[in-house]
């Protein structure tokens, strides 16, 4: 009789631990989803800010080119020449 009580007590205890484990799992899933949602929001905001900043830079460059076409051409030539030399040196070294 005492063994039956111990078995029943053990089974009840196992069921209790299973229930607690499921509750912990559910809370962990909820916390994970909250964190994923927060990360998505932060990435979206950062992406939006980067997009706005890129548009501003492009507009500024466009305005500079319109106001100073000769300087822009010389700068473009210099940057292109510099990149060409750097890439040539880099690939020649390999």
Automatic annotation (TrEMBL):
<protein>
    <submittedName>
        <fullName>PF05957 family protein</fullName>
    </submittedName>
</protein>
<keyword id="KW-1133">Transmembrane helix</keyword>
<keyword id="KW-0812">Transmembrane</keyword>
<feature type="transmembrane region" description="Helical">
    <location>
        <begin position="72"/>
        <end position="91"/>
    </location>
</feature>
<keyword id="KW-0175">Coiled coil</keyword>
<dbReference type="InterPro" id="IPR010279">
    <property type="entry name" value="YqjD/ElaB"/>
</dbReference>
<dbReference type="GO" id="GO:0043022">
    <property type="term" value="F:ribosome binding"/>
</dbReference>
<keyword id="KW-0472">Membrane</keyword>
<feature type="coiled-coil region">
    <location>
        <begin position="7"/>
        <end position="49"/>
    </location>
</feature>
């Amino acid at each position: 009789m005492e063994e039956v009580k111990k078995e029943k007590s053990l089974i009840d205890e196992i069921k209790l631990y299973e229930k607690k484990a499921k509750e912990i799992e559910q809370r962990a899933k909820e916390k994970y989803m909250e964190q994923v949602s927060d990360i998505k929001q932060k990435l979206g905001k950062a992406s939006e800010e980067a997009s706005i900043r890129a548009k501003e830079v492009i507009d500024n460059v466009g305005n500079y080119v319109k106001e100073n076409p000769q300087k822009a051409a010389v700068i473009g030539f210099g940057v292109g020449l510099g990149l060409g030399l750097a890439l040539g040196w880099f690939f020649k070294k390999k």
